[in-house]
Amino acid sequence: MVSKQFLQDEKYSELRKIIRSINSDENLNENLSEFSYNMIHGESKQLNTVLSYLYDIKLSLDFFAKYRNEDISLNTINKLTKLDFRALYSNRKIHNVSPFSQRRLLSSWRKLFKFLECENNVLSELKIKTPQTFPRSISKELIDDLLQVNDTWISYRNRALWGLLYGSGMRISEALSLNISNWDSKKESITIRGKGNVIRKVPIFKIVNQWIEEYLFRYPIQLNKNNPLFIGNKLSRLHPQTCAHILAKWRIKNNIIQKITPHSLRHSFASHVLENDCNLKILQQVLGHKNLDTTSRYVSIEDKKLENSFMKIME
């Protein structure tokens, strides 16, 4: 079976772990393997996106096993009801799961139901309202603190990575999928393979270009154009969860209350360039948004800031 063969590739080790950790029958595991293969090779989804789908599905199945008091199987999925999903939603809400994660979970299940061609697709009519949330940008002063370095190669790697995310607005998954060959130091640009397998070339600031050069000068293994641009302690491609953990540790160490994630650096880039009158259409191309509506939410954020500032003046 093709799906089982593709999971043997080391870069899909996280997918293997999640599927194997699901306490279900072999038939469901095979279908989840096929689902993963189809998402990556059929729909050109990024690996991190598919990992999110499977993680959501695993958490859901763990809950359904306890809630329904039965072993999980492919037959279980066919018997799921709206009541099951409302119970799951309520349970996650009690545990303060964010509205974004709630929406993503439902999206993961809709993808799986569609792939399995379930006759009883309970989510086709199920709509759970979640409040719209807007990203919070990081202050420029805080970003300056984040970009400080010490004498370790990891410190220079972090500065290059954070600087690239904030200086170009690319997604963390896009940055970590880069090889050294994707970076053009002379043209000060990077070629990215983004969502939907769409390739785009993004210009980078001269200072970010310099930070990448300084990091690669300290690159701990022999440079090869096919090497990952950003590597971890084990000298293999850096993982998104590792990046989130690094930022969380830095935030705690520096007594910073605001939550800082790799994605908030992307949001900050968008907000700050709009503050400097960047054209919305250009920003859409740089961020790699398929729809202009996605990009335009940053205008709503800036308008809200302006309104808040005005109200403070009038107090």
UniProtKB/TrEMBL annotation:
PROSITE patterns: CB, TYR_RECOMBINASE. The lineage of its organism: Bacteria, Pseudomonadati, Pseudomonadota, Alphaproteobacteria, Holosporales. Gene3D superfamilies: 1.10.150.130, Intergrase catalytic core (1.10.443.10). PANTHER family: INTEGRASE_RECOMBINASE PROTEIN MJ0367-RELATED, PHAGE INTEGRASE-RELATED. It comes from Candidatus Cytomitobacter indipagum. Residues 26-117 form the Core-binding (CB) domain. Signal peptide: none annotated. Belongs to the 'phage' integrase family. Keywords: DNA integration, DNA recombination, DNA-binding. Residues 133-311 form the Tyr recombinase domain. This is Tyrosine-type recombinase/integrase. It comes from the Bacteria.
